[in-house]
Specification:
The chain is mainly β. It is built from three helices and 24 strands. It has one domain: Neuraminidase. Strands 2, 3, 4, 22, 23 and 24 form a six-stranded antiparallel β-sheet that branches. Strands 1-8-7-6-5 form a five-stranded antiparallel β-sheet, with no helix packed on it. Strands 13-14-15-16-20 form a five-stranded mixed β-sheet, with no helix packed on it.
Length: 331
């Protein structure tokens, strides 16, 4: 990317990686209109529909006139694929409906957008609500992890929706030592009901990425992920068979953005050592991507593993873009 527009894009993205503050107004949930346009997965002579073990099933570019739309950092897609819930790193929820044709993602309709609340019922603003991780089920409680003031809150989403105040989830004391902008980036509700919380760039002495398995009434269990430089964790999910999927991002001024997906097989996760796993896809700027931060996984009608990835545009439209991509993960 050598054009002036390309250089502006990279400069803007670099600025946002430094953690510039974002705005969120006092408000209540309101209707959200989203324009969704299908875009090609890749273009040019190397156009393809598969990268690694990910088979592309549709990409949508999302735009909205609502000034609080953007910055998507966490995503939950319902088990049947029809609905989604997302969080932004500027203190907001947003919802919508997904549309398909011939097993491909072809459309999206906006639902609502509204502010995240604190345990005392007050509205979070800007970086006080720097929400980065989202986990759970739309018909149950959902968990949100935050950077800056590193913490996890549990929201009664099924019963209260966006109006629910959260309860505090106990986190390990050592989390206080995480970098300001490198804390709890990805969380996943595991199949057994425990919570997996992974940091973006909080490393041990060997350079491994720290995380923890959290469960009520038990001490946190540390997990370690071998870092594959220059990638950092942005989200994590567990598949139906117990494997972990790690979404990881890279960025450089000259190389632009990229993401990879790593699969840690269930026995390796259960063993408790330093996890590594296999890279199932490594995606660069020859594909239509952006700052890919959010990951959701569900089981398809035929038992296939369906993967959704969404981007954080850092509120830099049109230099950056909000994308939601759907893939099938091949074994």
């Amino acid at each position: 990317m050598t054009s002036i527009v390309g250089r502006l894009f990279l400069a803007a993205l670099a600025a946002c990686f430094l953690g510039f503050d974002l705005r969120a107004d006092d408000e209540t949930p309101r209707a959200l209109t989203i324009d969704a346009r299908s875009v090609a997965f890749s273009t040019g002579e190397d156009a393809k529909s598969t990268v690694g073990k990910l088979v592309h099933r549709g990409t949508l570019r999302l735009t909205s006139a609502d000034t609080d739309f953007g910055g998507i950092s966490g995503l939950i897609v319902s088990d049947d694929g029809s609905q989604f819930l997302a969080i932004t790193d500027a203190s907001h929820w947003l919802t919508g409906a997904l549309q398909y044709r011939d097993d491909r993602l072809v459309g999206l309709r906006g639902g609502e957008i509204g502010p995240l609340l604190a345990p005392d019922g007050s509205i979070l603003k800007g970086k006080l609500g720097d929400a980065e991780g989202l986990a759970g089920k739309l018909d149950g409680d959902v968990y949100v992890s935050f950077e800056g003031r590193h913490r996890i809150w549990r929201y009664p989403y099924a019963t209260k929706g966006m109006l629910g105040s959260p309860s505090v989830v106990a986190t390990p004391a050592e989390l206080a030592g995480a970098p300001l902008n490198g804390g709890l980036e990805g969380i996943a509700l595991l199949n057994d009901g425990r919570l997996l919380a992974m940091t973006e760039s909080f490393h041990d002495n060997a350079g491994n990425i720290r995380g923890w398995v959290l469960s009520t009434g038990a001490d946190p269990v540390q997990v370690l992920l071998k870092r594959r430089s220059p990638f950092d964790v942005t989200d994590v999910r567990q598949t139906a068979n117990g494997d972990l999927l790690m979404l990881e991002r890279r960025f450089s001024t000259f190389g632009g953005v990229g993401f990879e997906m790593r699969r840690i097989r269930s026995p390796e996760f259960a063993a408790g050592g330093v996890m590594d796993g296999e890279v199932v896809a490594d995606v660069g700027m020859n594909f239509t991507i952006d700052n890919m931060e959010a990951l959701s996984v569900r089981k398809g009608a035929n038992g296939e593993t369906l993967v959704y990835v969404a981007s954080d545009d850092n509120f830099n439209a049109p230099l950056q873009q909000t994308l939601i991509m759907m893939f099938e993960l091949k074994n």
